[in-house]
Known about the structure:
The structure holds 2 protein chains of 2 kinds.
Chain A: H1 3-23, E1 30-36, H2 42-55, E2 59-65, H3 68-80, E3 87-90, H4 92-100, H5 118-122, H6 125-130, E4 141-142, E5 144-153, H7 154-160, H8 171-185, E6 188-190, H9 196-206, H10 224-235, H11 245-250, H12 253-258, E7 262-268, H13 272-278, E8 286-289, E9 306-308, E10 311-313, H14 321-331, H15 334-341, E11 347-348, H16 355-364, H17 371-376, E12 381-382, H18 389-404, H19 410-431
Parallel strand pairs in A: 1-2, 1-3, 6-7, 9-12
Antiparallel strand pairs in A: 3-10, 4-10, 5-7, 5-8, 5-9, 5-11
Helix pairs in contact in A: 2-15, 7-8, 9-10, 15-16, 18-19
Chain B: H1 8-42, E1 45-49, E2 52-55, H2 59-66, H3 68-100, H4 106-118, H5 121-132, H6 138-143, H7 156-181, H8 185-193, H9 198-226, H10 230-235, H11 249-259, H12 263-291
Antiparallel strand pairs in B: 1-2
Helix pairs in contact in B: 2-12, 3-7, 3-9, 4-7, 7-9, 9-12, 11-12
Amino acid sequence: MKKFPRIMALVLALTLLLSLFGCGAADGKTHLKFQIWDVAQRESMQAICDAYTAKNPDVVIEVQVTSWNEYWTKLEAAAESNTMPDIFWMHTNQILYYSDFGILADVTDLYDDVEANYYQNHFSEISIGNASGSNGRLYGVPKDKDNLVLVYNKEMFDAAGVSYPDENWTWDDMTAASEKIYGSTGKYGFMAYAEDHLGYWSFVYQAGGYILNDDKTRAGFDQPGTQKAMKFYIGMQQNDWCPNQTYFAETQPGTAFFSEVGSMYIEGNWELMNKATSYPNMKDKWDIAPLPKCPDPVSGDGRATMSNGLCYATAAKGRNLEAVKDVLKFFGSEEAQNIASSYGAAISAYNGTEQPYFDAFEKAGYDLNLQVIEDQFAYSIQCVNNSARPKWKSPVGDELIRIYSGQVDIDTGLANMQNIVDTETAKKLAGD
Amino acid sequence: MKKNKLSPAARREQNWAYLMVAPTIIGLVVLNLWPFVQTIYTSFCEHLGFGHYKFVGLANYIEMFQNGEFWRATWNTILFCILTVPVGLFLSLLVAMLLNAKIKFKGGFRTIFFLPMVCAPAAVTMVWRWIFNGEYGILNQVLGAKIGWITDPNFVMVSCAIVAIWSNIGYDAVLLLAGLQNIPKTLYEANSIDGAGKVKQFFTITLPMVSPTLFVVMIMRLMASVKVYDLIYMMVEETNPAVTSVQSLMYLFYRESFVAGSRGMGSAIVIWTVLLIGLVTVIQFYGQKKWVNYDV
């Protein structure tokens, strides 16, 4: 009986030892990890992985989802310890920060054996721009392209006797409609809140201003167009028909919209399918329209919408670099991009793969004016970024909150924003 | 100096002892001591990105002390301690005494009061956020008021303090309960024969006898309050206009280190917080001589 504990200990030790071996690829296959942040796109990502592994049975790809807030903290820590996932999504907010430091693998020559100028032939300039580093090389294979649309509640427009928004709508039409809807139904009008990409950015470009100048070295918060747009956008909360920032601190505009409390807000097209399926009782009660234009822009024709795009990236020092590059090559192919589009979550970046995205909505029975998205690509603006963006993003956001809460007046706030971006950008440029 | 020689057997035993404590010592050094040394070093550096640092001397500290947001966070942290520790301790002691009394379903009550401790803090705050919600929250519905509990700069700190106290009462009460149960019954018997009332009994017997436990709980609670982060992070988002009124030192540290990527500044804030905790603890250890009673 005394022997029993010893035998137990031996068995336990052996089990622990064996589980160590389990970490290695005992099946002789190449195991790859693919990290993303959007749970709504897990299925489409799994589908392209399956398409690849069907052709390459010696590769196993595991899709992992991490929430957006933790994604960047985790990824940076992984980059420092050289344990990055084999494949991961890269965002325009961060790509310059990562690529300037040499973290990401250069994939410019990935398709040289397939076709010269592969990227230029099959992807838009904005898509390539969103996947490029400061030096113009590509550090990711373009994944998708998006732009922002105006989501509106048809029932509330009908109840207030206001005609639906169309491509001729201006800021004035939007505020007039908001007022009328609030007056006759008590529901909020357009919901403007403290937010950059989905908020004031589009308005700034509509008014002929800019957030960063062309060579990305200087902010544009002192430009007349930018100031005009910021004053209009922030000023909207002064009206009864727009909830104030304390409301938005507790309720997302999308939540307010789909709880039928507000009549309009700006949404990215990548969220439409998710919203449609999450709120089935709102079916046929809402539609999308182009963003309203600035009636009297400082320059330009008053139209603009932000267009962003993600890319598939991998670490420059990855252990499975060759295997991963082959996967990336497939992810950037027409076949894979068509599959990804067909789930209706995001429009793939590859030119001509838009149709499966539209078909997905039709198949699911959601009747939305999706043509708007395609039309808007003609005049969309590439998402704002420079390599100092991670440094200035949240300080600028804090300043915006201070304007909203009345701690600084708008002119001082904008001057501070200008100062924050210029200082951080100059620091970054001096460091390089 | 004369070394006292050990016999070979004693030395063997000594070596074995070292070997036995080695795992703990190594763990402490690797997981606590070394990171602490690194944090001190990092606080004198600027983080360039991805683990590359540049030595900048005292620049982070100078910038930190000139930053209004930092002083605001320091004050917020102190205010949070003032709000949570005394009230929390008082309520915990009260609950502990009630749970120690002769009442029905004592076990049930003990479980109920301990429950918040078993819940994940993230889940607890999510529920409280809904209770506090200015538009649809149950608290405003019951009061018939329209108070922005977590969006109004005047209320947000109190709201966070309430949640903190609520979550910790059970745990503190269980510790105090253990202390209360160690008090010999004979003391109370002798006291009541002398004709003392319940209130007098509390001040002459219960409080002095439970004071060592109370002291430990107080130190733990104060340290936890200075380090408060997760609760505020979950309750108040960055887009909340009231964020500056409740931002604690650890919240500021998180935002500097992981959102803005300035780990040098983040480390400086941590060092400041460590000094703050150290100072408070030293004061407490001197203060305890006046009220903590160890003669049992």
